[in-house]
Amino acid sequence: MLSLRLPAPAFPAQLFPLAQVHDSFIVAQSNDGMALIDQHAAHERVLFEKLQDQYAAGTIPVQDLLLPVQVELGHAEMEMLAEYLPGMKRLGLLVEEFGGATFVIKAVPALLAAGDPKRLLVDILDEIKVHGKSGKMDALRDEVLSVMACHPAIKVHRRLTMVEMEGLIKDLFSCRMPHSCPHGRPTVVRFSMDEIRKMFKRT
């Protein structure tokens, strides 16, 4: 199914970042109150939809690894990976059989180039193990892409500059589904001024 870029959903008011809480959550002010944004969940959503669009277009950019990474797998994982190798290539993950239970990762999606290729492959196989039955990657697209989006997403306990926070909020609310990460967790919790006043018994 094609994933087309739709107009950004309406949001009650523009958000302006003010600070971070424990380098994990962005505090933002709006015209009608404030919001807390989970920076990891928000970035996951942004990357997930970017990967969705690239996958639908058949053009996930790849980055060749300077040193190919060898992965030893158990028998069940080895058979599973062999079945899904063509689908892995479309995901931007170039994996080849090396002999026996050993596979070699030669390239990864460019968005994930700074990550751990072996960990990525193992996590994708775990996701396939839970959801995969057909042997066709298209049937598992969103499940696998959500795993891929998690790896390079901004982590908790990472300090962001004001420019980075502004960029993340802008990117988030350009998404088709900005209010949750690919796993279903909320990205934003909003508080109206009325709710805030009630907390301080000012109403």
Your description of this structure?
The structure is a single chain. With 203 residues, the chain is an alpha+beta fold. Helix content is 38%, strand content 24%. The chain is built from 6 helices and 7 strands. The chain has helices spanning 39-57, 75-90, 117-131, 141-150, 162-172, 193-199; strands at 16-21, 25-30, 33-38, 62-72, 94-99, 102-109, 188-192. Strands 1-2-3-7 form a 4-stranded antiparallel β-sheet. Helix 1 packs across helix 4 and helix 3 runs antiparallel to helix 4 (141-150). The longest helix has 19 residues, at 39-57. The protein is elongated, with a radius of gyration of 20 Å. The N and C termini lie far apart (50 Å). Mean pLDDT is 89; it is low at 1-12.
